[in-house]
Structure formats: C-alpha cells, structure tokens
Design goal:
Blueprint lengths: L3 H16 L9 E6 L2 E4 L15 E4 L4 E3 L8 H10 L4 E5 L2 H9 L2 E2 L13 E4 L7 H10 L5 E4 L3 E6 L2 H23 L9 H10 L14
Parallel strand pairs: 7-8
Antiparallel strand pairs: 1-2, 1-5, 2-3, 3-4, 5-9, 6-7, 8-9
Helix pairs in contact: 2-4, 3-5
Protein name: L-ribulose-5-phosphate 4-epimerase
EC number: 4.1.2.17
Enzyme class: lyase
Length: 218
C-alpha cells in the first residue's frame, strides 16, 4: 500500500479530532500533501472504523491513484489550497465555538495574542455550499497569509507544513473563538490588541513549537 504511514496519520488525526470534540460524526476531513499526491480521508466512514486502507491517494488534479472509497466531499477545497500555497497538510472541523463565530462575524479580531499563531485576525470565508468550487475559492482567499480560517455557517480549517502542525492549531483556534464568544456574551466592549502588540506577540512566539500533539501525530 503506497504512502501507508501518511494514510495512518490521517486516521490518527481524524480520531484525535473526534476525541477532542472538534467534529460531529464524520463531519470533518484531513489531508496530507506528498509531492504531487494528496492523501485524504474518505467520505462518510465512521472514524472508529476508519483504517489506513480506507484513506485514498489522489493526484493534485483530483484523479484517484489508490482510492477504494469516495474521497471527502471537500477534496476540491483541499486541492485548491494546495494549488495556492506550499502547505503540507490541512485539517477541517465543525467544532462548536469556531462554527458559532462564523455565524456572527466576518473576522475574529485579535482579542487574544494566540491570534499571532495564525498570522493575525482570523477571516471568515463567505458561505458557499459544501464540496463546491465556490467554497474552495472562498476559503482559499480567506487563508491568504493565514494558517487558519473560519467558514461561514460551516466550520473551520487549519493548515501547516505538516499534519502535526496543522492539527496542533485546531485547539488554539477553538480556544480563541470560545474566548471571543464569552467576551461578546457580556455585552461589554472587547479589548483588542494593537498591531504593535500583535507584532511583539508574534516575535515572542516565533521560536515556540507546540509539543502536545507532535509526539502523537508526527
């Protein structure tokens, strides 16, 4: 089986998202780019039943290379991001706080310095039907110079040079959205960090390497 290690990593990542409450059912997907190939989770397979052999391998044009099951409906989204960037992995989830934030704003402001992990304010891609080219284009645009974005009335996405890095960002994105939501619930003005403060935070975090997930998702 080709790219067996990468396919198993996708399985492990899907189960991690499920264990952390970042997906509902099978409503999420994970992919890894390996040169001109993309390893991506299949559609509608319960994560507890998912195996490496179920994870398909496709070319960057979407042509299946070794895929016995239908790929995630969001394959066009993953391919669009890979064509537009040099990222090595993508995760997509429907976690509660990040999904909720996508219902009430067009951008999550820098209310927490963790936003520096994503390159600044987190954009919300305009709504488009799942699995469509319109959604792929909207999300790719929202990810410009960012490592994560929200999808209006849908969910969230993170990227990274490898799967460990992309996956590690998911809980931070959910945390940022949860904090912003709770602050908004008070009805009081939410303090926003200045561009200078965010630049200082980015500098301070430039050597930070999250380790909580790397050990399990290398």
């Amino acid at each position: 089986m080709m790219l067996e290690s990468e396919r198993q990593s996708v399985v492990d990542a899907c189960r991690f998202m499920q264990d952390k409450g970042l997906v509902v059912g099978t409503a999420g997907n994970v992919s890894i780019r390996v040169d001109d190939l993309v390893v991506i989770s299949p559609s509608a397979v319960p994560y507890e039943e998912l195996t490496a052999a179920d994870v398909g391998v496709h070319r960057l044009d979407g042509t299946p290379v070794e895929a016995r099951l239908k790929p995630s409906s969001e394959l066009p989204l993953h391919l669009s991001v890979y064509h537009a960037t040099d990222v090595g992995a993508i995760t997509h989830n429907h976690a509660p706080a990040s999904t909720a934030m996508g219902l009430v704003c067009d951008e999550v402001p820098c209310s927490h310095y963790y936003s520096a992990m994503f390159g600044g304010p987190i954009r919300v891609a305009p709504y488009a039907e799942f699995g469509t080219g319109d959604l792929a284009r909207n999300v790719t645009d929202a990810l410009a110079d960012r490592k994560g974005a929200l999808m209006s009335n849908h969910g969230a996405i993170t990227t990274g040079p490898n799967l460990a890095k992309a996956l590690d960002l998911l809980p931070y994105l959910e945390y940022i959205c949860e904090v912003q939501l709770r602050a908004m619930w008070t009805g009081r003005p939410v303090k926003i960090l200045s561009a200078e403060q965010m630049a200082d935070a980015a500098d301070g975090m430039s050597t930070y390497t999250p380790t909580s997930l790397d050990a399990d998702h290398s």
